[in-house]
Every structure is written in C-alpha cells, then in structure tokens.
Amino acid sequence: MTFDLEFFNIGYLDTLSYRNSFVHRLDPRIKIIVSLIFILFVVSFPKYEISSLLPFFFYPVFLLTAGNIPLKAIAKKIFFISPFAVFIGIFNPLFDTGTMYTIFGVPVSGGWLSFLSILIKYMLTVSTALLLIAVTSFPGICEGLERLKLPKIFVIQLLFLYRYLFVLLEESLRMMRARDARSFGKRGKEIKTFVRLISVLLIRSIERAEMIFRAMLARGFRGEIKVLRRHTVNAADVLFLMISFTMFYIFRSYHVVNIMGAAFSTVLR
Amino acid sequence: MHMADALLSPAVGGAMWAGSLGTMIYCAKKLREKMDEKMIPLMGILGAFIFAGQMINFTIPITGSSGHIGGGMILTVLLGPYAAFLVISSVLVIQALFFADGGLLALGANIWNMGVYPAFIAYPLIYKFIVGRNSSTKAITIASILSVVIGLQLGAFSVVLETRASGITELPLNTFVLLMQPIHLAIGLIEGFVTAGIVIYVRSLRPDIVENLEGVKTLSTGMSLKKVVIAFGVLAVVTAGALSWFASTRPDGLEWSIEKIYGRPEITGKSDSVKEAAGKLQEKTAILPDYSFSSKGGEEQRPAWPAVDTGTSVSGLLGGGLVLLLVVVFGMGIRAMSKYRART
What we know:
The complex is a heterodimer. Chain A is mainly alpha-helical. Chain A has 14 helices and 2 strands, in the order H-H-H-H-H-H-H-H-E-E-H-H-H-H-H-H. Chain A folds into 2 domains: 2-148 and 230-259, no CATH class; 152-218, no CATH class. In chain A, helix 4 packs antiparallel against helix 9 (110-136), helix 4 (28-43) packs across helix 10 (138-147) and helix 6 (71-80) crosses helix 9 (110-136). In chain A, 43% of the residues are buried. Chain B folds into 3 domains: 5-247, Arp2/3 complex 21 kDa subunit ARPC3; 251-305, no CATH class; 314-343. A two-stranded antiparallel sheet of chain B has the order 1-2. In chain B, helix 3 (72-79) crosses helix 5. Chains A and B meet through helix 4, helix 5, helix 7, helix 8 and strand 1 of A and helix 1, helix 2, strand 1, helix 4 and helix 7 of B.
C-alpha cells in the first residue's frame, strides 16, 4: 500500500507548481521546448559515455534550486519508479563482458559502463520530466501544449482528466476502504469482486460525466475553455532558451569533464 | 511496459513521436468532423477513471500476487478508436509527467505501443469483427481476451524493436523477445478476462449506458476496414524501413567490433543507393544528423573509447568529480540566493 500511495501521490507535485519563482514564471512553451531539447541532447550520447553526461546535471539542478523544489520529493519519485530501464539495462553486464577500462587495477567491462550510462541518462531525463511539471503546473502545461498547436480537443479533455483525477481517486479510495472493512484476510480481492467494484466505479464515472456536461451547458460551454491569464514570451524566456541551448551544445560537443580534469591535474602538478 | 528515455536514441524517439503525433492529429480531425460535445467531459473522466481504477488491486490467480488493470481496451470499447486513442495518450502524458513512467522523449513510443495497437488494430480487426455480428456474453469474452492479448503482444514486440533499433541494450534479439512476449501474454490473458467481465457486468447493470455510448460512438466511427488495413500496411513498411535505417547508422556491438578490427566503423566498398538517398534525405531533414553534434563523420574523428589511455582516464575521473562538485555548489548557491532574497 505504501508503494501505491507513493505512486499516486500526485497532489504533492501539484502543490509545488503553484510556487512563485523565476522558473515558475517562464512561459510554459519555452520550458517544454528546452526540456525536450535537453532530453534529446542527453540521449544522443553513445552508449558507453559516462563522464560527458555529468555536466548535464546542471539543468535539473537549476530547475530544482531556482524553483525552490525540495530535493527529497524528486529523489523519492526517481527511486520508487525505476523498473524498466534498470530491468533492461542490467542485462548489459551479462552480455557485454569485454574489458574496456582498467581503473586502479580493476577491470571494468563495457556492459557495466553502458549500464551506468543508462542509469545516468535515466536520472537526468526522469528528473527533468518531474521538475518540468513541478515548476509549470498542469494547466500551464496544457496551455503550452495548446499553443504549440496540439489538437484542441486533446488538450481540453486532458484538462478535464486532470481536474477529475483527484475526485475519482478519492472515490476509489473510499471503495477500497469499504472493501477492506468488509473482508478478512485474502478475501475480497478475487477477480470477481474486483470486476464488480470497478464496473460500479465506471458507471459512477460515466454518470458524473453526464452531470458535468449538463452543468457545463448551463454555463455556456461551446467546445472550448477560456483562460484569463495567458503567458507571453518576454526577454527572460528568450534568454533562458538561448543560454540553455548554448550550454547543452557546449556540453555535447566539447569533453568538458576531460578538459577540466586535465586543467586541474596540471594545476596540481 | 513503459519505454524509458534512457533506452532510446534520438532518431528512434523522434520517429515514434512523429508517428504518434500524426495519429493524434488524425484522430482529433476525425472527431471534429462529427463531434458530439458530450464526448469531451466523457473522455476526460474516463481517463481519470483509468487512474482511479488502477488504484483498486486484485489477486492474480495462480501466482497470488497483486495486480491492477491497464484499461486501454475498455476505453476503446466504450469510446471508439479515435476518442480512445486520445484518452490513452492523455493517460500516458500524465504518467510521464507525474509518475516518471517512461519519459518525455519515450512518450511518443509509449503512445504508439499502447495506443495504436489496441485502438486501430485489435479493436477494428478483432473485437468489432467478433462482436459486430453476435454480442452474446461468450462472444464478448472471446473478443476481449483475443484483442487485449494481441494488442499487448504487438506493443511488447514494438518495445523490443525500438530498444534494439536504439542500440542501447546488449540483449540478443531472441532472448529479448523471449523475455517480453510470454510476460505480456500472461498479463494480456488476465487483462482480457477482466475487460470482458467489466463490459458484460456494466451491460447487465446499465444496458442504457452501453447503448447510449454506442450511439455516440457510431457518430465517430465511420471507418472502413479496407482503409485501415491499407494505412497500416503502408505505415508498417515505412516504420520498418525507417527503423532499420536508423539502426544501421548506429554503431552497435557488431559494428563496434568491426571498427576495432578494421579501424573503421564499416567495411567500405559496400553502399547501396537507397541507403545513400535515405541518408541524404535524413541529413537534410533531421535536426540531429547521424547523432553526432560535433561534426560530420564524428565517429572516425572521435577517439574510440577503448583507445583512451590511463592519463586521460584519470583526468576524466578528476574532471567528473569536479563537475559534480560544481553542480552541487551551483545548486546550493541558487538556494542560498533565493533564501536571502526571500528574507530581505
């Protein structure tokens, strides 16, 4: 149950997104675009690359700290949900056993290198996705998506989905509590009970949709949702876009880590 | 079976994004043609229902472990393929943003794997084909199980292809297939059984709901089987072609070993015109031609990993530590600055 609660604890990220900071105020379109560019740059590295990926941690750390997001919230999420990439990546050390490196006398196989590379890429991309929502808010993302010309109907129903997500989650939590109260040990969780429970939830959801639709019609709904405040692209947005892109480009095309390491060791000497 | 960003190459991720985005726009256009505005809140709420429904767990027979529904097929049966595809995409968008399931680049692949197959292959070709003539309990059960199983099998196989084409995993293709397909067969059987149960039970409790939806749905389901089959034939050929091309530009394990032997990524003297033309086209259109940002033919110029001598590897370790330290200092600096600003 703790896993489920952690998994569905999406209200918390939502509350974070209503803070006010430099990154919160940026235009959602810019944030979506920069995050996508970031991810493209990160995954464009060859599979044995490790050290060149490290400078890219600047971007999530910037979002985290400038957005005043607690590190624990993001770290916990990354830790809890990491199955697929790890599951597939863990086979690399088994199949790719050729030694590529010897670090302090310990041979390191290509498989371990590529596995580590997958893990780092995983951390970078996943934390960026989580931070994007934490510094933008879901309605903000939807506004950005709509203005990036995604189909309107898709965006509107996405807003609906989000708005009623919490209502329906509470409904299903109530149903689960009722089921737990009425059943002992392993009973109550058979497929047969489950099918009936979820069917009832489905019927309630559809009935709710009908009520909402009538309420919307009463308030003059004509197929689109109007918002009061719209973001505009201003100088800060353009600057953010240009600086981030330049940084990513430098990190990608120059081996920053090696250059710095070499400089550092000459200084040491 | 959510794909992760870390397992994708930019080209494969981008190609899957293009495919999914195209399908989304197509669906939205189809829905707009004969739109019933009632569909909008219904779509949103059924999307929320999928999340809420996933909270309720059940005991999986035989193994005794706990499971929850996926729900793609239920959506398709209730809403029809176009609306269902958009709702499945929305569910995946929220999973990617809030749960870090997959990732933003992998979202395209995930929408394709979990949306296109149930909505546009399993539903029209299997479910409708069986239930269209005879909507008895037995027919619904068979149709649900078959369509869910086939949808999931196709999706799982796509995951294998996409990962392989990205060249990140070392898993041999047949091992990978043997890992993925049986697991998803088991999942599919249970999911299909549950889907059938829900459709039948809802119909017995509130036949009007299913019929009403049937009415809403037929407004937006005017597609012919022939068109679907032709479209998917074309798509399959294009995707297969694109994926194999992308795969071959990637120096995978085999090419890497060739590189070691010959000192060049490919044995020269072998080039066919199709590949060349495709390459030219890709170079013109792609944002990231051949993955390499630095320069054309970067593979040859960049020193291969094994050639790194100990001197540079030490400086690599040193520099890596330094950069990480800088990242931490940078973060702490911004934190301190905003705290200072909040106080004054």
